[in-house]
Specification:
Blueprint lengths: L12 E7 L6 E6 L8 E3 L2 E4 L2 E6 L5 E9 L5 E8 L1 E3 L5 E3 L16 E3 L4 E4 L4 E8 L8 E14 L7 E14 L6 E7 L3 E2 L5 E9 L8 E7 L5 E3 L2 E2 L11 E8 L7 E11 L4 E11 L2 H45 L1
Length: 336
């Protein structure tokens, strides 16, 4: 059940918020904390780490843990649930219902064995550790498997009113199992092919992960002028977001031509990905033709054309006039 959609941005953490007010609604929120911090705080609950990226050898199991800290003023009753998710639009995770599992090729929830109660209470300023074991089945496929541990609890409303809302915040778990195959392709698109002023160019760097493991494609777009000189290098995927296997993700960046830019520019996207440092490339061509340059060229061309069609006649008349004056001078000398 995988379509070609942007994969989840694992430098971000998703939070599912469900209102318990009479008008019930569901909201999906992204946190923009960097993966390097690997700590997420949402409405009274701190979770560390919010991203786990693990390697598991074929036929082996692995143990890990997650720490939850209550930063609110009241006790929190936490319920833990292993869940699968699908990579959704613009990197949003779409969690699979409890009664379902993901495609076995990528499913992880069934591998998770909790070594703590599935429900517990955390007092204010207390930290509770949730240990668990990942047990791959005998017939598990090689490659990346992904899922999450969701921690559900009741917290106060973010709007500050007296209502309480049922919330779930999860740690994303990526597992590279067995033999990984890294492969992918890049495509570069620009929102403009011809420009008549030095305006912003928006670039879409699409990476399609055709391998069986998640990768973090990073690189630059090399902008070269008509003489082959590199004049700019916009960065691609600076936050090292992951792209899941068999999915596509688009990374947006921009190029701002200088006010002196003119002519043909070649833009080449060079992305490096995987542990073996593979490369994926693509090119586009953009013409920058500012109107003020076109006016100057038009005026110069008009002068050249005027000289070609009128200047030579003017020059010819001057030569003839000079010749007549010479004849007149000679005639006057002879008359004397």
């Amino acid at each position: 059940m995988f379509s070609v959609v942007p994969s989840f941005v694992f430098a971000q953490q998703a939070e599912v918020v469900k209102s318990t007010s009479p008008t019930e609604s569901t909201e999906l929120v992204d946190s923009t904390q960097s993966a390097s911090e690997n700590i997420h705080y949402v409405r009274g609950l701190e979770i560390t780490p919010f991203l786990l990226d693990l390697d598991v050898e074929k036929g082996k199991e692995i143990k890990s843990q997650i720490d939850l800290t209550n930063r609110s003023l009241s006790p929190l009753i936490i319920t833990v649930t292993p869940r699968d998710f699908l990579p959704g639009f613009e990197g949003q995770p779409e969690f699979v219902p409890d009664t379902q599992i993901n495609d076995p090729t990528f499913s992880l929830a069934s591998w998770i064995n909790l070594e703590s109660p599935t429900q517990f209470t955390i007092q204010p300023d207390q930290t509770f550790r949730v240990p668990f074991t990942l047990n791959p089945p005998v017939n598990a496929e090689d490659g990346t498997h992904y899922g999450a541990l969701l921690f559900s609890y009741v917290g106060s409303s973010a709007t500050g009113n007296a209502s309480e809302i049922q919330q779930s915040v999860g740690t994303i778990i990526l597992v590279r199992y067995g033999v990984g195959r890294e492969n992918g392709t890049a495509s570069l698109f620009a929102n403009k092919k011809i420009m008549f002023n030095a305006d912003k160019v928006t670039l879409e760097n699409k990476f399609f992960n055709t391998g069986n493991v998640h990768v973090q494609p990073k690189g630059e777009v090399y902008v070269s002028n008509m003489w082959g000189k590199v004049v700019a290098t916009p960065f691609v995927n600076r936050d090292a977001a992951n792209v899941l296997p068999k999915t596509e993700r688009t990374f947006i960046n921009s190029w701002y031509p200088s006010s002196f830019a003119f002519g043909r520019y070649t833009l080449e996207s060079v992305l490096t990905y995987g542990r073996t440092r593979l490369e994926a490339k693509d090119k586009v061509v953009i013409w920058v033709l500012p109107f003020y340059y076109l006016i100057a060229i038009g005026v110069a061309l008009a002068l050249v054309l005027w000289f070609i069609f009128h200047g030579r006649h003017w020059h010819k008349r001057r030569v003839i006039d000079r010749h007549y004056r010479k004849l007149e001078n000679e005639s006057s000398k002879q008359g004397q």
